[in-house]
Amino acid sequence: MATDEKTSSNQPTASPALIEESISSVMTEKRKFPPPVEFSNSAHVSSMEEYEKLYAAAAEDPETYWAGLAEQFHWFKKWDSVLEWKTPYAKWFNGGKTNICYNAVDVHMNSWRKNKAAILWEGEEGDQRVLTYGELHRQVSKFANVLKIAGIKPGDRVAIYMGMVPELVIAVLACARVGAVHNVIFAGFSAHAITERVNDSRAKMVICCDGTRRRGSTINLKKIVDEAIVNTPSVRNVIVLKVTSETVSMHDGMDHWWHDLMGLAMDVSEPVEVDSEHPLFVLYTSGSTGKPKGILHTTAGYMVHAASSFKYVFDIKDEDIYWCTADVGWITGHSYMVYGPLLNGATLLMYEGAPNYPQWDRFWDIINRYKVTILYTAPTAIRAFIRAGNEWVTKHDLSSLRLLGTVGEPINPEAWMWYHRVVGQEKCPIVDTWWQTETGGIMVSPFPGATPTKPGTATRPLPGIMVDVVRKDGVSCNANEGGYLVIKKPWPSMLRTIYGDNERYEKTYWSEFNDMYFTGDGARKDEDGYIWIMGRVDDVVNVSGHRLGTSEVESALVSHEAVAEAAVVSRPDDIKGNSLVAFVTLKDEYEGDMKLRESLRNHVAKEIGPIAKPDEIRWAKGLPKTRSGKIMRRLLRELATSNEVKGDVTTLEDFGVLENLRDQEDE
Ligand code: WT7
């Protein structure tokens, strides 16, 4: 899996037209899995009573709760106030001075962790590297000096466009060390996307690799950067890390080799003492209209929540080998590949390449060889593994695993069950973590030693996180009534604004429900207070007066034995208001024919009810996805309605898939 940019359907649209009557939830999942006793016994939080106590205390006095977590970090100067809140602008730990790189790396220099592995890296071709915390400290300090010599000052923006190599982590941490604001751009993006992001953030420097490997071939990243920076007046220098053996063109005065500069740099550098609210990074996520939004996160609040949520949700211990398969180009990579793990002194695994290279068992082979204990991946990857077949998984010894995680989309209960049975061998709790680029850290998730899980729900909010499901007038929904997911109180790792555009920030997140942050997601809360995400509100469809979350219909389809993946969209219909069109990818051994179409329709009718029966089913060899694996339902909607796609397709990963999805005659 690589993780990618949001599609239009992942944005709050702030359009009142969408906020209509309530949403009918039709999911009837009843299975429940208590945490294994052995897991609970050694967990940081080992019972629901303990969780409830923490939650209640945090709800009663959030500032004391967050301050307690913040105490655990190194502060050059302690804060004056925990929270200053003028809706919708927050200042957390104001008056304090700290440095997140110091807390992630330097603090380990005076303990045994100095020689502990920080990063276990594996390249796509099988090459391996290990960086201890001590070595990471040395490299980050040197690269911080490189940045300083190149004239980077606190507050300057630095764009980073690199493949998944340890130097990407080093570059990110070095920026934080000198107070520069990093802007990581996923290495799968085009020159145009780089230009847009660099110009919006007015980045002074670009750090890139000469190239990156993907499924056995090399992509020349430097060439893409050359093309991008023709139109970026703010960029003064490009630093190029040599990864491949291919020749790239270097421009005098502008381009510098990473190794040349590192060769000259000293390995001692004092971290800059920055204010708590000093900007830490900008990360772009695309909007439904207009240019991508630069989500701005600041230092101290982000640090406190990224670190503490990592500790509790992943129940991290010093012995763990933790693997997050996301790319650092996405928020998951920022919070739970770099900052969360390092702030906790954990050992993380970083893999450069594709999950199916050279074969479909690459992940399971890695888990066995490194004895990975915690795996954090995405539903799209899980569904791809299901499709590839169990034997790729079961031929490897996965007994080291003790905890599994998922993020990015609602996980279909059947995919959850497969993850639980085949990968977790029924002994690993699954943490289904709900959050967003904007939230900076996990908001809703089980505590793995405490929370009984149910397939398909992210369960309960973390202590200090006040989420609710509300009607369009902001009043809380009843149990099991579908509505809009909001966050009622500020939290430390919340976005501070959209870079350079306060107006858009206010309109997108704060205009729909007074004084509450609108997530853009539809959800329901069940009788246990568990949150079931029903997808983006833009993906809610109205059929015969019932508003249905398309993800629920998709889950019903995926629970049929023949189905690997499904996407459901609506098409205007004179009679029903809307009719449902399902795009279905079958498991390899199944053939799409009329009989199967009928069988799928009946299956949905049985699982949900006749109202949710798709009116049309189209067979899809593949579905149009963003590079992070999110299905681009907007394109499918266009296809279902007009049989062609006119909208923006720049974030689409594989253009070929659209061709196969046009009208199909019943065979
Ligand atoms: C949107 C945010 C947060 C890291 C990756 C995505 C969806 C995310 C879940 C989950 C159901 C989920 C939501 C959310 N989403 N996690 N566990 N269950 N839906 O970050 O690109 O900012 O996307 O992803 O719709 O709003 P992002």
TrEMBL record:
Domain AMP-dependent synthetase/ligase: 114-491
Example of a GO cellular component annotation carried by this entry: cytosol
Cofactor field: Mg(2+)
InterPro entries recorded: Ac_CoA_lig, ACAS_N, AMP-bd_C, AMP-bd_C_sf, AMP-binding_CS, AMP-dep_synth/lig_dom, ANL_N_sf
PROSITE patterns, sorted: AMP_BINDING (PS00455)
Catalytic reaction equation(s): acetate + ATP + CoA = acetyl-CoA + AMP + diphosphate
Superkingdom classification of source: Bacteria
Organism: Chlorobium phaeobacteroides (strain DSM 266 / SMG 266 / 2430)
NCBIfam families in the cross-refs: Ac_CoA_lig_AcsA, PRK00174.1
A Gene Ontology biological process term: acetyl-CoA biosynthetic process from acetate
Binding site for Mg(2+): 558, 560, 563
Domain Acetyl-coenzyme A synthetase N-terminal: 51-104
Post-translational modification: Acetylated. Deacetylation by the SIR2-homolog deacetylase activates the enzyme.
E.C. code: 6.2.1.1
Broad EC category: ligase
Residues the entry annotates as binding ATP: 408-410, 432-437, 521, 536, 547
PANTHER family: ACETYL-COENZYME A SYNTHETASE, ACETYL-COENZYME A SYNTHETASE 1
Protein name: Acetyl-coenzyme A synthetase
UniProt entry keywords in alphabetical sequence: Acetylation, ATP-binding, Ligase, Magnesium, Metal-binding, Nucleotide-binding
Domain AMP-binding enzyme C-terminal: 552-630
Gene Ontology terms, MF aspect: acetate-CoA ligase activity; AMP binding; ATP binding; metal ion binding
Family listed: Belongs to the ATP-dependent AMP-binding enzyme family.
Residue sites binding CoA per the record: 214-217, 332, 356, 544
